[in-house]
Amino acid sequence: MHTLLGLSWGEWASITTVVIFMAGMVSLLFKYVVFGPFQEDIKDLNKNFKMLNNNLSELRSDIAKLDKRADEHDRRLDRHHERIKDLHDKIMGGSY
Predict the structure, then answer these.
(1) Cβ 89 vs Cβ 96: under 8 Å
(2) Rounded-to-integer distance, Cα 55 and Cα 42, Å
(3) Rounded CA separation 29/52 (Å)
(4) pLDDT at residue 95 in the model
(5) CA 69 to chain centre
(6) CA-to-CA separations, 10 to 13, 18, 20, 24, in angstroms, rounded
(7) What is the pLDDT of residue 12?
(8) What angle do CA 55, 69, 86 make, to 5 degrees?
(9) Which residues fall within 8 angstroms of residue 96, CB to CB, at 6 or more apart?
């Protein structure tokens, strides 16, 4: 009969099977007990990132609208300033 380190091939096959089975059990234990709760947290985190991206897009759009309004107000203020300056020149006959 063939042996390796004093054990037969059948005994080595049994030891290998037991070691592989134990490694599989440890792997399943880590998957469901250790990493299982993190999977839900990761899903929630991804959902929150999507919501943040949507909010950021909305904020960018709102900022662009506010910039347009501020530019329009700037132009209106410039026109008012010119009108006031013209009226002052007409009334006082001099420079502002």
Answers:
(1) yes
(2) 20
(3) 34
(4) 54
(5) 30
(6) 5, 12, 15, 21
(7) 86
(8) 165
(9) 85, 88, 89
Which residues is 3 bridged to in the sheet? 8
* Cα gap 60→67, rounded to integer Å: 10
Tokens of 12: 């080595």
Question: What are the mean pLDDT values of the chain's consecutive 10-residue runs (96 residues total)?
Answer: 74 92 93 84 94 96 95 95 92 69
Q: Model pTM?
A: 0.49
d(CA 71, CA 75): 6
- Contact of 42 with 36, CB cutoff 8 Å: no
SS3 annotation, 59-96: HHHHHHHHHHHHHHHHHHHHHHHHHHHHHHHHHHCCCC
Concatenate the DSSP letters of all residues of 36-47 into one string. Answer: HHHHHHHHHHHH
State the number of CA atoms in the 13 A half-sphere of 59 facing the CB.
6
Distance CA 49, CA 43 (A): 10
